[in-house]
Write a structure and sequence with these properties.
about 180 residues, Heat Shock Protein 90, 5 helices, about 35% helix, five-stranded mixed sheet, alpha+beta, globular
Length: about 180
Amino acid sequence: MASTHALLSRNQWQGVRLATLVGNELAPYVGEGSTNVEGPEVLLSAEATQAMAIVLHELVTNASKHGALATAQGRVSVQWDWEQAEDGPRRLVLHWRETGGIQPVVQGQAGYGIRAIRELIPYELDGSVDLVFDADGVRCRIALPLQRERSGIQTVQLFKAAISLPAAECAQAQPQ
């Protein structure tokens, strides 16, 4: 969390780009194609930055101890994009996928990290998390609902001010 607070402080608590946050968490493991990170520019609010930092940290920690980042052949892919919900507004959806690592084994009760991954986003940001342990590796899907708001700086923000879109996308997202 210290590096996340440093990023937030550097940006005067106005938020952090999602790519920066993901990159910082995966930085110790980047190399030889072990990670893939891609998605549109997204600015997380300070609140969303803190919640996502914890979740990403726990995903990286679990991958480095028990998953794809624990082996030389393992790979982690983190991708995000905007998605239109069938029953509501657009949302940001992030996909975490591990391949080539140790086959995940779930034993007994979930520890702190798994509980944080599953519970923090719904509680703090009214989003959803689908965490799956299958033979190919861990998969995690995080969805954050978009709420349209107008502001003087031409941004559209997620529920509870979680994410801001670049101004160019705001015109497309504004209610007609």
